[in-house]
Amino acid sequence: AGRENRLSDALMDRLRLDAVRIRGIADGLRTIAALPDPVGEVVEGRRLPNGLDVRKTLVPLGVIAVVYEARPNVTIDAAALCLKSGNAIVLHSNAVLAAVASEAASDAGLPDGAVTLVAGGGREELAELATQTGVVDLIIPRGGEGLKNALKGVATVPVIYAASGNCHVYVDASADLDSARAIILNAKTQRPGVCNAAETLLVHAEAAPAFLPGALRALHEAGVELRVDARARTFAGDVPVGDATEEDFDEEFLALVLAVAVVDSVDDAIEHVNAHGSGHSEAIVTRDTAAARAFELGVDAACVYVNASTRFTDGGEFGMGAEIGNSTQKLHARGPIGMRELCAFKYVVTGDGHIRP
Question: Residue 6 — pLDDT band, cuts 50, 70, 90?
Fold first, then answer.
C-alpha cells in the first residue's frame, strides 16, 4: 500500500510495525516500568544560613498532548512515559494503538481519561487542541515541517518541537581513520531514515588524502549516493560522486545520500556545522583533546559526540527507557525527551516558624 501511495522509503520505515519492532516496544515498556518514579525526586537541596531547608523537586506537568504523523511506537512510548511521570496524555492520531494504551491504563487501575484520543486527524482539530490553554499543559508534535508550521501559527499552549536532524560527522586531522570510517558508516547507513543519522561528512584537509579514498569507496559500496565538494572530489578516484550544492549541506536527506566537504581546521568545521546543522547531534572523531574540547564548546547542538556515532541520540540508548522525541530547543527540554523532561519543578521550603525580617 505504501508503494502504491508513493510513500518514501524513510516514511515507510517509520510506519513499519513488524514482529521485531513489536518486541522492541514491549522491551521498552518493561524498561520504563523498571525505572524509578521521577515524581517527588529531589533534584537538589540546600540549607540556607537562616535555617530554611530548600528542596527542588519534580512534579508532573499535567496534561500532555502528543501529535504525530508516523512511527507507531510513538503512541506506546509516549503513553508509557507520560503515565510513569504522573501525567495524563492526549493522543492525536492512531486510534488502534491509542485504544490499546487506554485499555492497558484502565486495567492498571489508572483514572478514566488518563489516555485520551482526539477524534479526527485534521489540521482543524489540531488547531483547536493547540489553543486549549488551561486544559492542555504541553504539546509535543512529531512530524514534518508542515505539522510544526501549523502549530507555530496558532498555538497558545506551550510546545516542544521534536526536531528534524541535519547531523554531521567531522573527521579531525588526528583521527583514528579506521574508527572514523566505522563511525561514518554506522551514522549514515545503519538506519538512514531517522533524525540522528548523519547527513554530512566533514574531513580535515590533513586527514583527507589518507581517509577519503577508502571512506568514499566503502560508503559507495554500502549504497550511499555521494555529493561532494570540489576538494573532496579530488580523492574520489573511480568512485561515482555528484557535485554538492549549497542546498545539499542544508538538507535532511533521510535516505542513503551523504554530502561531503573538506575543511581546513576544527574551527572551520564548527563554523560549517553551526551554519548548516539543525542543532540535533554532531560528532567529532579525533585523538586531540584540545580539538575535542573546542568542538564540544563551539558546536550549538543538543548532543555532541566525541569518537562515537550520532546514532546514539535516543532516550533508550541514554538510559531513559524511551523518548517522545528529540528537542533542539533550549527551553524547556533539550535532547531526548524522557520522563524527567515531562516534569516541572516545585520548590519545597521547610522552616520552623520563619518570618522574613
Answer: low
Task: List the CATH number of the domain containing 298.
Answer: 3.40.309.10
Task: Tell me the sheet residues that pair with 263.
Answer: 204
- For helices 177-189 and 208-221, give the axis angle rounded to 10 degrees: 30
148 and 219 co-located in one domain: no
CB atoms near residue 6 (< 10 Å): 7
Residues 180 and 296 in one domain: yes
Cell numbers standing for residue 59: 512534579
Residue type, 66: V
**Measured between alpha carbons, how far is 15 from 67 in angstroms, rounded to an integer?**
15
Q: How confident is the model at residue 51 (pLDDT cuts 50, 70, 90)?
A: very high
* CA–CA gap between residue 115 and residue 118 (Å, rounded): 10
Domain count for the chain: 2
Q: Select from 162, 197, 212 the last residue of a domain.
A: 162
Chosen domain end from 102, 132, 162: 162
Query: How far, rounded to the nearest angstrom, does the alpha carbon of residue 23 sit from its chain's CA centroid?
Result: 22
Supply 286's cell numbers: 579525533
pLDDT tens for each residue of 294-322: 999 999 999 999 999 999 999 989 988 88
- pLDDT (tens digit, 9 = 90+) per residue, 83-108? 999 999 998 866 777 788 888 888 88
Whether 142 has a pLDDT exceeding 90, the answer reads no
CA angle 280, 79, 102 (to 5 degrees): 155
Distance between CA atoms of 82 and 129, rounded to whole angstroms? 18
pLDDT digits over 337-354, tens only?
999 999 999 999 999 999
